[in-house]
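Table S2 (text version). Query chain:
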Amino acid sequence: MSVVVSIGGVFAHAGNGSTWIVHAMRRKRELGANEIELDGIGIATTRLNARLLATGLDGVTDSPAADYEDAAERLRTDGLAVLGGVAPAQTTDAVAAALAEYVDADLLVYATSVAGVYAVDPEDDPDAERYDTMTADELVSLVVEMEMDAGSSAPVDLLAAKIIDRAGMRAIVLDGTDPEAVLRAVEDGEFDGTEIGPGAENQRSLAEYEGEGR
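Corresponding structure-token output:
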């Protein structure tokens, strides 16, 4: 089973990188930086994070993949690939979804700092209700009104949601602060989070889906 895992992003104040980069983005905005410049900071940070991640993985070159084609080739040859930011105005949420579609992944995992997709930021509203399951088109509807700018904190951003919907892929959003939780989701199909299915007519469990081998 091929899996794309995105580490960062959903409702996390860290945005697409570390907390300090979001503070840097805000400061740059205060100083008059435009969105493309801010995106450049974000991309550089995700590539640094990707390099740091790669150094901790056996069988992965220290240099992250340059683009989707490079990542796909590394998956074919090495079985593993690490990818950071790719283009301005595109978050790591979208990069992960695009890569999952590019390699026809069986599962897309968003490992975030919160335990799923919420209608509102749970850090702002402790009583926010979590979605246990939802369809990709429901996800698109949920985030369609959210602003997409550098450092934004949509549950899963609009471009990513649209890619998930277009590709008909299966995705989950979970609390990635526990590495073992991510491992259980990938290896056993067990997770505490939000399952995003390709359509209302297909609300089966992740375990059933994996058992069929897609």
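Notes on Table S2: The longest helix spans residues 35-55. The chain has one domain: 3-211.
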